């Protein structure tokens, strides 16, 4: 229905007619505008924004000494912006025998979407998942309590998350199981001898590779996903034809879903639900399952 501007003499009658029409259901009310949540950071998201090599925030980087307690040091990436309040933080562990450099493309990419990221070095290259889980939590504690003020002042200590590759992914499950206050976990090609994670309540996105021969999805990623209760928010993304080492090179599909998951659950930003539910699709995705986020 198109409304024309009334002449001055008819304005009162027109207003009355519109009011009566609205009361009688004759004119549909306009949809409510999106209400911004308290932790929303950055512009409205789009496919192009999430698929770009960098998000909307410029970032800085600083190193963490190997002499810190609880983990082996690493690299911190953080947004330069101080005008939008604090940011959530995520600790990421590399896999067995690997160093942070194997995943370091993830640091600035995730940070540029409005997160503080610490990519850790592990105490030894051979640490098992349980140890890596403890180190991830130690790294988060370091960020919140002991990191330089330029980093610490940017972090909301109530909005923390973990991720990791291979045994680091198994470690992120350990961390989520140990600390239910975490806002999100993203195990990537996770490996762990423990197969049941029925105690995990942290929103968890598991990303597996269809052709992974080191942590085959049938005995690792899929079993982990299935063991997490359906009452917990969870998702399973399987990448078409991907080997165990898919996160060690830039992977747009993985990064897009990972950022969307972190934005939705660490930042409580419902603008990102569109990238999680209905399920994403495309030639790079072999399978996707989830519980669909509850607003």
UniProtKB/TrEMBL annotation:
One of its GO terms (molecular function) is cutinase activity. Keywords: Disulfide bond, Hydrolase, Periplasm, Secreted, Serine esterase, Signal. InterPro entries: AB_hydrolase_fold, FrsA_esterase, PET_hydrolase/cutinase-like. Residues 35-55 are annotated as: Disordered. Its EC number is 3.1.1.101, 3.1.1.74. It comes from the Bacteria. Residues 34-293 form the PET hydrolase/cutinase-like domain. Pfam families: PETase (PF12740). The keyword Cell membrane does not apply. It catalyses: a butanoate ester + H2O = an aliphatic alcohol + butanoate + H(+); (ethylene terephthalate)(n) + H2O = (ethylene terephthalate)(n-1) + 4-[(2-hydroxyethoxy)carbonyl]benzoate + H(+); cutin + H2O = cutin monomers. One of its GO terms (cellular component) is periplasmic space. Residues 1-35 form the signal peptide. It is found in: Periplasm; Secreted. Belongs to the AB hydrolase superfamily. This is Poly(ethylene terephthalate) hydrolase. It comes from Nonomuraea mesophila. The lineage of its organism: Bacteria, Bacillati, Actinomycetota, Actinomycetes, Streptosporangiales.
């Amino acid at each position: 229905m198109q409304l024309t501007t009334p002449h001055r003499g008819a304005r009162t009658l027109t207003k009355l007619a519109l009011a009566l029409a609205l009361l009688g259901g004759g004119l549909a009310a306009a949809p409510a505008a999106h209400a911004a949540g308290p932790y929303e950071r950055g512009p409205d998201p789009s496919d192009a924004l999430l698929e770009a090599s960098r998000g909307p925030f410029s970032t800085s980087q600083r190193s963490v000494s190997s002499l810190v307690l609880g983990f082996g040091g690493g690299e911190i990436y953080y947004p330069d912006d101080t005008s939008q309040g604090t940011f959530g933080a995520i600790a990421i562990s590399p896999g067995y025998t690997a160093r942070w450099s194997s995943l370091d493309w993830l640091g600035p990419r995730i940070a540029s979407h409005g997160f503080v990221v610490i990519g850790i070095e592990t105490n030894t290259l051979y640490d098992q998942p349980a140890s890596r889980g403890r180190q991830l939590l130690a790294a988060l504690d370091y960020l919140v309590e002991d990191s330089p003020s330029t980093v610490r002042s940017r972090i909301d200590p109530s909005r923390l998350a973990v991720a990791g590759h291979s045994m680091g992914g198994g470690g992120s499950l350990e961390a989520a199981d140990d600390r239910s206050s975490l806002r999100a976990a993203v195990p990537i090609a996770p490996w762990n001898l423990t197969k049941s994670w029925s105690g995990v309540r942290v929103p968890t996105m598991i990303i597996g590779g269809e052709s992974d021969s080191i942590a085959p999805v049938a005995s690792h990623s899929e079993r982990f996903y299935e063991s997490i209760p359906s009452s917990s928010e969870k998702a399973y993304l399987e990448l078409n034809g991907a080997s165990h080492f898919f996160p060690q090179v830039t992977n747009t599909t993985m990064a897009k879903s990972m950022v969307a998951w972190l934005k939705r659950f660490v930042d409580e930003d419902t603008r990102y639900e569109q990238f999680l539910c209905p399920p994403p699709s495309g030639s790079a995705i072999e399978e996707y399952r989830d519980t669909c986020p509850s607003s």
